């Protein structure tokens, strides 16, 4: 199955159909697709062309999403489809998110198949990732409902570029999310992502203040684009002020890819500087990603500074939280979602095939 009735659109007086899912508000003629490429006009309605189709399934650690405060050490069944509603020149998954070859999506699975596979593999959660899940909202919703029936959590990895009405529905069936805050200037979003900053900030405020969804944020630091101390300071201050100082923030290293092959990889010292700035501003949980730097992987108590979780890449080498998720020294409860014992999945990946063909 592929073409599936899509939601969030309306007919215009001009005869075109407007997609209302994200702030792009694409206006479509017959057989035309939106910028995301997967939402298409067929006749007098709109369809999702990737329902039930995936670019692949893999079990990997929850820390890879990255989520450091959501059931640490547990395995997650991850999958995505194709397309994206942003046009990032630095996309690290461009072969999937920028793909316009729907036929490459050879892995097919119903929502129940995915939920069953996650349970069979012992996964605590599933994650919709690799490309932005908001563009296949209808599929995510059905998968989430099937997973929740089996007691499996749902994680979304998203850029947060979604309109207010569908946003309410999308985050009603998500348990945890990592939002990719790509930079902190309108210029950055406009020139490097062909998008706008404010809708993403609105999504972050909505998740934090109007839902129970667990939230972490990632910013990919690109040399000479969004890695300057002033921008990092403004971003960190906004997170502390608008979302709270205990909101986890991950600074991740860029590597040359897609349309930015001329840029060098992000130096470790840049990530360490950004982490230090964010902590000086008052953020309590600041991490570094895509680099080997143990202090930037480790979780410390926000109250007394005691070491709580020692990580080496995606491996947990020390876990000192009490069974109730509190610091053993001061008794302060760590923010997030924890079980009495951490998972032991480790750093490995396990590609799997679900193998349903409709």
TrEMBL record:
Molecular-function annotations in GO: 4 iron, 4 sulfur cluster binding; catalytic activity; metal ion binding
Start and end residues of each Radical SAM core domain: 69-290
Superkingdom assignment: Bacteria
Cofactor(s) required, per the database record: [4Fe-4S] cluster
Pfam families in the cross-refs: Radical_SAM
Cofactor note: Binds 1 [4Fe-4S] cluster. The cluster is coordinated with 3 cysteines and an exchangeable S-adenosyl-L-methionine.
Residue numbers binding [4Fe-4S] cluster: 84, 88, 91
Keywords for the protein's UniProt record, in alphabetical order: 4Fe-4S, Iron, Iron-sulfur, Metal-binding, S-adenosyl-L-methionine
Keyword Mitochondrion annotated: no
Name of the protein in its database record: AmmeMemoRadiSam system radical SAM enzyme
Organism of derivation: SAR324 cluster bacterium
Gene (UniProt): amrS
């Amino acid at each position: 199955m592929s073409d599936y009735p899509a939601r969030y659109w309306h007919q215009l007086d001009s005869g075109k159909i407007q997609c209302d899912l994200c702030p792009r508000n694409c206006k479509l003629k017959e057989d035309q697709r939106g910028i995301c490429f997967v939402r298409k006009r067929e006749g007098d309605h709109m369809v999702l062309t990737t329902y039930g189709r995936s670019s692949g399934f893999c079990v990997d650690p929850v820390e890879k999403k990255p989520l450091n405060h959501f059931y640490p050490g547990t395995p997650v069944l991850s999958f995505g489809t194709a397309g994206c509603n942003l046009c990032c020149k630095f996309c690290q998954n461009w072969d999937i998110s920028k793909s316009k070859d729907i036929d490459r999506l050879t892995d097919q699975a119903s929502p129940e198949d995915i939920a069953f596979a996650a349970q069979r593999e012992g996964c605590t959660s599933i994650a919709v990732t690799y490309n932005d899940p908001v563009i296949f909202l209808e599929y995510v919703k059905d998968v989430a409902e099937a997973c929740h029936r089996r007691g499996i959590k749902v994680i979304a990895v998203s850029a947060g570029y979604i309109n207010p009405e569908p946003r309410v529905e999308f985050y009603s069936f998500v348990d945890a999310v990592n939002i990719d805050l790509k930079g902190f200037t309108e210029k950055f979003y406009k020139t490097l992502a062909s998008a706008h900053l404010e809708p993403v900030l609105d999504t972050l405020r909505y998740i934090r203040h109007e839902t129970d969804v667990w939230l972490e944020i990632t910013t990919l630091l690109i040399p000479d684009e969004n890695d300057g101390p002033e921008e990092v300071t403004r971003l960190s201050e906004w997170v502390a002020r608008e979302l709270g100082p205990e909101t986890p923030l991950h600074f991740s290293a860029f590597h040359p890819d897609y349309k930015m092959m001329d840029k060098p990889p992000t130096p470790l010292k840049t990530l360490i500087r950004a982490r230090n700035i964010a902590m000086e501003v008052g953020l309590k949980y600041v991490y570094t990603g895509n680099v080997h730097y143990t202090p930037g992987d480790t979780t410390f108590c926000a109250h007394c500074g005691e070491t709580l979780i020692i990580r080496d890449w995606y491996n947990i080498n020390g876990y000192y939280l009490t069974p109730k998720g509190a610091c053993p020294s001061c008794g302060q409860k760590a923010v997030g979602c924890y079980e009495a014992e951490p998972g032991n999945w480790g750093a490995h990946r396990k590609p799997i095939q679900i193998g349903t063909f409709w």
